[in-house]
Amino acid sequence: MKSNRYLALLSAVCATLILFCSSARPPCAFAAPEQSAETLFQQGNDLYGQGKFQEALQIYSRIIAEDGFSGSLLYNLANCYAQTDRTGQAILNYERALRLSPGDSDSKGNLDLLRKSRGLFQEELPLVRRLASLLDLDQWTLAAGIMFTLLTSINLAGLRLSNGRQIRRWTGGLCLLMMAISSAGAFCQYRQLDEAVVIGNDTRLLLSPFPAASSIETIQEGRKLHYLSKHGSYALVEDESGRSGWIETNAITFIIEPADHPR
Predict the structure, then answer these.
(1) For residues 50 and 193, what is the distance between their CA atoms, to the nearest angstrom?
(2) Do the beta carbons of residue 222 and residue 120 sit within 8 Å?
(3) pTM score
(4) What is residue 204's three-state secondary structure?
(5) Residues sharing a CB contact under 8 Å with residue 188, sequence separation 6 or more, in sequence order
(6) Which of 120, 140, 171 is the C-terminal boundary of a domain?
(7) What does residue 109 show for φ and ψ, rounded to 5 degrees?
(8) Considering Cα of 39, then 40, then 46, then 49, what sign does the dihedral take?
(9) Domain assignment present for 29
């Protein structure tokens, strides 16, 4: 009796497997495998080397849409924009590449060369800004956090040595100095979160946020601006020389654009 029960159970299992296998769709023999990001990246590089900049641009844009971006990808994208005379987009992506890789000499060199060839004003950055650009915001913030943790640990431990007070004073002072430097670097990088690039051609900088407002000047494509506030479809911005005015928001793009940016 028990053997019959096991036999019936085994038959039911086999029948279920047969039904599942018969209803499952067989794989299509002609389905092409999806191209990896590395393969597409190499295709884009090959197209760029052949002078097919627009085609390469489409490949790089596809990779960004599907897999995200990297410093090298943004650098190649900027090169394509530069070769197709889209100065604003080229500068925007060089700047983005530098935010991901602050020490990348290729991105910085091409960016400086493009600005110079287009006659774009670029002020000499103060020493503090140049030092702050060595690391990104996350790295400076991490460094400040490590120094704060170390300083706290030193004070809590007490360094129970014969000359522990003197050692604690020197090491604590050094940690405090490094924490101050890291905090200053993080603050400088945080200030750059509101930087934008003009991507529109012959865009007007206005005295007030209205279409009929008087124009201060025609602001050149590729200029870098500092975002201050917004009114309607206009943004209050400040250029490198300290001059402020209103510009249409669709004429600028933030270098780093948070999802909750007030635009």
Answers:
(1) 36
(2) yes
(3) 0.70
(4) strand
(5) 128, 129, 132
(6) 120
(7) -65, -45
(8) negative
(9) no
Q: How many domains does the chain have?
A: 3
* Residue in 74, 114, 111 with CA at minimum distance from that of residue 96: 74
Helix axes 105-118 and 87-100, enclosed angle (nearest 10): 150
Same domain, residue pair 177 and 217: no
d(CA 119, CA 177): 40
| Residue carrying structure tokens 């040595």 | 161
Instruction: Report the half-sphere exposure of 135 (CA within 13 A, side-chain side).
Output: 15
- Long-range contact set of residues 255-259: C-beta below 8 Å, sequence gap at least 24: 255/92, 255/95, 255/96, 255/99, 255/192, 255/195, 255/196, 255/197, 256/96, 256/99, 256/192, 256/193, 256/195, 258/193
pLDDT in tens, 115-135: 999 988 666 666 666 677 677
In a domain, 5, yes or no: no
Angle value at C-alpha 121, between 245 and 204, nearest 5 degrees = 30
Neighbours of 211 (CB within 10 A): 10
Secondary structure, 3-state, 8-56: HHHHHHHHHHHHHHHHCCCCCCCCCCCCCHHHHHHHHHHHHHCCCHHHH
| Tens digits of residue pLDDT in 138-184 | 787 888 888 888 877 777 666 555 556 676 777 778 888 888 888 88
Q: In whole angstroms, give the CA distance from residue 10 to residue 99.
A: 63
- Angle in degrees, CA 254, 59, 55, rounded to 5: 105
Per-residue tokens: 42: 């190499």
